[in-house]
Amino acid sequence: MFLTGSPLHLYEETPETRRTVAFMRAVFASGTPSFGSCAGLQVATVAAGGSVRPNARSPEAGFARRIAPTKAGRAHPLLSGRPAAYDAPAIHTDEVEALPSGATLLAGNRVTAVQAAEIRFDGGVFWGVQYHPEIGLDEVAGALRRQSDTLVKADLARSQDDVEAYAQQIDALHAEPGRRDLAWRLGLDEQVTDERLRLSEMRNFIEALTRLGREGPLAVDR
């Protein structure tokens, strides 16, 4: 099961959030291995008894910078191949406030304390990240444009024109990922510009299933 982004705020009690959390609890109970990014991590957190809140520091928009694996994360197959610090596509206004019992923190950075985690609950296991390994640079640019008002209100940009100029550079790098001048200007390296490296977490999850079948993610500590 794969869960990605969502406009839902898991700290709000609505029919939509209740259905989403109930679905995730059913996924855990079924023993179906699951992976999530961004809101996916938040859904799994709340379903297992943790909590989510609006970002305490700032919206993380465009890219999450200097994500650092914890000691547990350095040994965990979800982050296999990731260096000691890396960037990743990210855009979110909510974050995990507290992981549930049975969870392991795998990575964080200065802006968002929980950037990656494993959650075990009711016989199931979830691997998740707060960032978006699944989206390309063109999707990052599109997300910034859609949320330009929010970025200006958060003082991350002076105007919508600033957001557009930044998005255009990201679009240009998407079109020509080998352009070192654009990567330098945006402060990005191959962890973002190389699609195979950017997809590391998803590939690692699928490879665990391929090697060990349905029990793959559950067998990490066995």
From TrEMBL:
SUPFAM superfamilies: Class I glutamine amidotransferase-like (SSF52317). Pfam families: GATase. Residues 17-137 form the Glutamine amidotransferase domain. GO terms for molecular function: hydrolase activity. It comes from the Bacteria. The keyword Plastid does not apply. The keyword Heme does not apply. Keywords: Hydrolase. InterPro entries: ChyE-like, Class_I_gatase-like, GATASE. Its EC number is 3.4.-.-. GO terms for cellular component: cytosol. PANTHER family: GLUTAMINE AMIDOTRANSFERASE YLR126C-RELATED. This is Gamma-glutamyl-L-1-hydroxyisopropylamide hydrolase. It comes from Methylobacterium dankookense. The lineage of its organism: Bacteria, Pseudomonadati, Pseudomonadota, Alphaproteobacteria, Hyphomicrobiales.
